[in-house]
Amino acid sequence: MKSSIAATIFASCLFVGLPTTTVAGSEDVVVENAWSRASIGINRPGAAYMTLRNTGTDPVTLVGLETPLAMMPDIHETKTDANGVSSMAPAGEIMIPPGESVSLEPGGLHAMLMRLQTKMVEGETFPLTLNFADGGTRTVDVPILGIAARGPEG
Amino acid sequence: MNRRTLLTYGAAIAGVAALTLFIGWWRVDGPGAPEPVAQRPLPLTQMEFQMTDQDGATVGPETLLGNPSMAFFGFTYCPDVCPTTLSDISGWLDDLGDDVADMNVVFITVDPERDTEAAMAEYVSYFHPAIQGWSGTLSETARAAAGFRASYEKVVTEGDDYTMNHTASVFLFDVEGQFAGTVDYHESREFAVPKIRRILTRAEEDTS
Asked: Residue A70 is part of which domain span?
């Protein structure tokens, strides 16, 4: 009897130790330093920034975004050419190689939040869901900082 | 070697030298010169445009003369580059402290259709108090950009919306309105602040 209890405990420990999903890759993504700027009203698009770190052994691909805050969230990239002219365009899918990080930061990649449903108010947060190519998702709470914020520290 | 041979050699050398100089001129300054990539902005005294500032006052390049100036183009519907530029500039101004009291800092919109005087006033109010917001008609905006040798372009995006591509550099001018350099988009503070300090110091030397 005693040994069967021990066996059950042992078995359940094993079970807990196993991955709870068959999705490979995206559960190894760590999201750090997420932040965004407050908006003036809802007519202007917002932007959110963060660092995605792939701690796993397989490449992970970010394919899209979802949030109740904006009807059309998408990853965009700002580029500045040799003449100093900046332009912005959808960045498409973002591949994060194993062991590496991809930063969404001012002047580069950013989560562009088009068609805001509500005003982005300083001090609040909003949920942003990252969709990965393997079917996995990750929802992060993005803090809203002031309009003049320069980074995750404000 | 007789005199005649010497003369021949001399003439040949002179000829080669002249040809080299000519080729050099042709390729650098002459018709063979490559198109300049980005031209320097005109002095403020040679620019002509009229706009309205965030308080409704009529302003133009002549408004800036007499103090050192910093001017840049953008639009308030820009989610990334423009708030970043304005907050970078706010940070530089904070670093410079009281030294910037007399400096003109002007944000000129390339999107006057959406950036009305009221929109500019609200937008600049969130950044350093020295930053002014200028807007003009479409044609005055074009004249301003031409003077600064800046470019901008309306780009239609998904869902009948549009964004603006634009020159993101910050232009510096001295008290007399002479172009004094640029700070590139997102240039780090340790490079930007000394550049600005240089035109401020020059302004002090001029007045003392």
From this structure: 24-145
A48 by Cβ neighbours in 10 Å (0-12 / 13-18 / 19+) ranks as: buried
The answer as to whether A18 is a domain residue is no
Does the residue A141 lie in any domain?
yes
| Gap from A78 CA to chain B (nearest CA, Å) | 8
Q: A114 to chain B: which residues are within 8 Å by CB?
A: 157-159, 161
* Residue A8 forms part of a structural domain: no
Which amino acid makes up residue B103? M
**What distance in Å separates the CA atoms of residue A72 and residue B159, rounded to the nearest whole number?**
9
Identify which of A46, A47, A148 has the shortest CB distance to residue B126. Answer: A148
Rounded distance between C-alpha atoms, residue A6 and residue A18, angstroms: 19
Q: Which residue has the tokens 């070697």?
A: B1
Q: A52 CA to chain B: closest CA distance, Å?
A: 19
Q: Using CB atoms, pick whichever of B37, B86, B158 lies closest to residue A82.
A: B37
CB contact under 8 A, B38 and A82: yes
A window 66-85, beta carbon within 8 A of B: 72, 76, 78, 80, 82-85
CATH of the domain at A129: 2.60.40.1890
Q: Do B165 and A87 lie within an 8 Å CB cutoff?
A: yes
Task: Report how far Cα A127 is from the mean position of its chain's Cα atoms.
Answer: 10
Q: How many domains does chain A have?
A: 1
Q: A82 in a domain, yes or no? A: yes
CATH topology classification for B44-207: Glutaredoxin (3.40.30)
Q: Is B151 on the interface with A (CB under 8 A)?
A: yes
In tens, the pLDDT along A93-137 reads 999 999 999 999 998 999 999 999 999 999 999 999 999 999 999
pLDDT (tens digit, 9 = 90+) per residue, B127-162? Answer: 999 999 999 999 999 999 999 999 999 999 877 789
Q: Could you tell me whether strands A109-116 and B69-74 are parallel, antiparallel, or unpaired per DSSP bridges?
A: unpaired
Please state, in angstroms and as integers, the Cα–Cα distance from residue B177 to each residue in A20, B64, B133, following that order.
67, 7, 19
